[in-house]
């Protein structure tokens, strides 16, 4: 799965109607609602939208015939394996009716072109854990952890015997990372999987 790194837009004219798609990354449902409210054009005939956040998704046709706008936008999101993404497609009616098939192609196509042009990043599922480590192991452990891809020391708290490191590590590598920590410290590190 991927998500967008920044907002993106794409506009096109189809049979004198102007379509503008704006897509962006969102962390939760409220952020998606805020994005929609911020990017809906008051002077437009329709502001149709869709968003997906994990297994939760919503879409809206905003007055267009049922199934001709929001659902094609959602299909554009899903077709590009995106998550934590919202897309608003705004239409200014140009006087020519497009029909159901034309609307589906116009809304879905404008959303897809917008998403294709957007800068994306791979979503890496992460786990958080705390490690209590002695001073004698601290420097070497921090050096090794910093060399691991996508592993981040999010906090470091010093205690009388050493430090407690809070880590964010890729879930897929968690077992290997824990084994490396145990081996490197000869089992002295205390690991709290939270």
From TrEMBL:
<feature type="domain" description="UPF0029">
    <location>
        <begin position="131"/>
        <end position="188"/>
    </location>
</feature>
<dbReference type="InterPro" id="IPR001498">
    <property type="entry name" value="Impact_N"/>
</dbReference>
<dbReference type="InterPro" id="IPR023582">
    <property type="entry name" value="Impact"/>
</dbReference>
<feature type="domain" description="Impact N-terminal">
    <location>
        <begin position="15"/>
        <end position="114"/>
    </location>
</feature>
<dbReference type="InterPro" id="IPR020568">
    <property type="entry name" value="Ribosomal_Su5_D2-typ_SF"/>
</dbReference>
<comment type="similarity">
    <text>Belongs to the IMPACT family.</text>
</comment>
<dbReference type="GO" id="GO:0032561">
    <property type="term" value="F:guanyl ribonucleotide binding"/>
</dbReference>
<dbReference type="Pfam" id="PF01205">
    <property type="entry name" value="Impact_N"/>
</dbReference>
<dbReference type="InterPro" id="IPR035647">
    <property type="entry name" value="EFG_III/V"/>
</dbReference>
<dbReference type="Pfam" id="PF09186">
    <property type="entry name" value="DUF1949"/>
</dbReference>
<protein>
    <recommendedName>
        <fullName>Impact N-terminal domain-containing protein</fullName>
    </recommendedName>
</protein>
<dbReference type="GO" id="GO:0005737">
    <property type="term" value="C:cytoplasm"/>
</dbReference>
<dbReference type="InterPro" id="IPR036956">
    <property type="entry name" value="Impact_N_sf"/>
</dbReference>
<dbReference type="InterPro" id="IPR015269">
    <property type="entry name" value="UPF0029_Impact_C"/>
</dbReference>
<dbReference type="GO" id="GO:0017111">
    <property type="term" value="F:ribonucleoside triphosphate phosphatase activity"/>
</dbReference>
<dbReference type="InterPro" id="IPR020569">
    <property type="entry name" value="UPF0029_Impact_CS"/>
</dbReference>
<dbReference type="GO" id="GO:0006446">
    <property type="term" value="P:regulation of translational initiation"/>
</dbReference>
